[in-house]
Fold Hsp70 family protein.
Amino acid sequence: MAACGLDFGTSNTTLGLVTEARPRLLPLEGRHVTIPSAIFFPPGQPAVVGRAAMAEYVEGTPGRLMRSLKSVLGSSLLEETTPVGRERIKFRDVIARYLTAVKARAEAAAGTEFDTVVHGRPVHFVDADPEGDAKAENALREIASSIGFKHVSFQYEPIAAALDYEQQVRAEEIALIADIGGGTSDFSIVRLSAERHAKAERADDILANDGVRIGGTDFDRRLSLGTVMPLLGLGSPMSRGDINVPNAYFHDLATWSSINRLYNARTLREIEEVRRDARRPELIDRLYTVVEAERGHSLAMEVEGAKIATSEAGQGSISLDWVERGLVADIDRTGLVTHTDELARRIAERIGRCLAQAGLTADRIDALFLTGGSTGLPHVRAALTAGVPHARVVDGDTFGSVGTGLTIEAARRAA
């Protein structure tokens, strides 16, 4: 039996253990140490996880895809059921099935079973709701116990990232850790040094923690609502009265955790009724095509890909030729910023809250350590660096720093 560090992320998951006094993330899908937090249920067949799950869905295999599973923690969705083939299962059981597969793959790669886990968690599962936050952690603890972990504890994700960064720190410094993930943005201010790294108790070195439930999937959502959903009818007028087409369908279609809500006969009937009274029925026809074909996740993947391409190359496009020949949504960096700049500002505001909590001014921060996929967005990075303009900027392992730090913590707690 062994202890592991588990970073169950909104977008990706890692699991690691310490071998020969070094933390090591285990391969979970082929040679990949990261595995997308996705599960696909083909009818009458065992569930498929990770990249394989998304490939099955994109290739048109019948079944149900679920992604960004972590986002239901702290929401009412956790206890709701969703249709999977001929049965209905709770979202908490979906998470359990996914993590069961991850645990089994990690144990096979390590050649040992894991009975102890340090789970990563955001600073806030739920903003401004301590009771909801506690419920979310407790639910994740119950899920971990149900899949075979006998000893379950938690560590804040930015603290875990700090433990990874501290491996390269030689002189004492104060670091601001920014972990901008798929579902949350988390910050910690931590006192670090090589000597402190060896200490088992680090409570006095943690100067501040704060976070907000905004992450990469929120950027995807805003981008989708701003560029794609208007092509499907969002904001278009109804024939009678000074009202627009109901927007709930579009918000669900743009939100990873809500897409599956649309896949039922009642929703299709409702969309048909909307079409009859819409001033531009051809747009609602496009919406109907997406929902009837259950291609909402494909659309979300296209938006995510265009976001990444735009952040890297300055422009991207989303081909909707499968909806209507020649239909495309083009995105440039200006559009990306226009639709998502408010989110970047709200994330960066937490830096001021952390500094106030720590009783420090911005010039006291020696290093800004960045991890998480959304730190790759130029306007997010600019907003973060502006908060501590004199700090040295250090880029961590985008998807592995938190998992590595959790692995270090797991070894300490098991010693």
In short: DSSP finds 13 helices and 18 strands in the chain.
